[in-house]
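Example 354, ligand adenosine-5'-triphosphate.
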Amino acid sequence: MSENSQAFLTVQDLYVHFPTADGLVKATDGLSYTLERGKTLGIVGESGSGKSVSSSTILGLHRGTNAQVSGNVWLDGVDLLSLSDREMRQKRGKEIAMIFQDPLSALHPYYTVGNQIAEAYRVHNNVSKKAARARGIEMLELVGIPQPQTRFDNYPHEFSGGMRQRAMIAMALINDPSLVIADEPTTALDVTVQAQILDLLQNLQKEFNTAIIMITHDLGVVAEMADDALVMYAGRAVEYGPVREVLTHPEMPYTWGLLSSVPEVGGDTDARMVPIPGNPPSLLNPPSGCPFHPRCVHSAKVPGDLCRTTLPELLEGPRGAGHLSRCHLPDPEAIYEAEVIPEIAPEQVEERRG
Ligand SMILES: Nc1ncnc2c1ncn2[C@@H]1O[C@H](COP(=O)(O)OP(=O)(O)OP(=O)(O)O)[C@@H](O)[C@H]1O
Ligand code: SF4
Ligand SMILES: [Mg+2]
């Protein structure tokens, strides 16, 4: 991570609130992060924590809705939130592209895959249909679609799920965007295809020096793909930093909960899965203080009533290195070592001591 002013992407104090009949839904509540070219930020958190809303706001997808948006989103020195709708449309699909969980939501069933990919190119480039077709075929080949010349003229339903995901990646990358937002891009795929798609994204990232925001429920994907990790809870960052730091020295009990419920992180298949008790909070009326407090089994270790009354700030921990967390615990590392690691995987305790 780097200083805000110099980063390729800087999201600063982003708020996205939705007024509804039941009250104000605070889907993103003061989110800040940075991302450099060629790097990947993994955003992780339970359903409803604000991962998609915060990321799609970068693309301006909440324009024209009743969403109340404030803050700054700087991309290569330009504040995206201050652009006109026309200027934003020029960036969307060209400089910034999005890959969704469900390719059928991005691919129209009535048009051939190739025509849709070529059209994504023609919207931003003044080229002939023939040149766009050639470029589309080149992209299909790049993402590993066999016989791309023939496959170009297939309809989405003639592609398998994995091929549709590849086609959507081809469509997203055809204009060589500098920022790609991938929202659960592999959740619907089986494990083998998932690994292939992640490999493909990594290879394309290396080739084009793309910055990637990878939204996922899966800490395994974060461990494999990301340079930095951002853990979201109730519309806010609760832990953020270099991925190795966050995954091997997590400082916030919610991150501990996520790690405990994903045994494969660290490659320990014998580890026990410990689900986080309770449910994600309502964003209409989130709990006071630390919003995780009703579910946190460590809050009794914090003196007084702080967890219930006071929102912890996102602060750098004792290890430094830009590793931030939001928790009142005075010595989280000691609790993690003594109580959490043995719960997850007793072998890791020995490894760490060794
Ligand atoms: N247009 C809207 N109006 C009102 N509330 C909304 C709107 N869009 C999203 N929300 C709410 O904002 C919150 C955050 O939603 P978001 O889609 O960002 O969650 P998420 O972290 O991506 O979850 P998931 O993992 O399920 O995709 C949710 O409570 C959701 O119901
Ligand atoms: S601030 Fe309190 S409730 Fe929140 S995670 Fe830390 S210990 Fe748990
Ligand atoms: Mg989502």
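Summary: Residues 289 and 311 are 4 Å apart (CA to CA).
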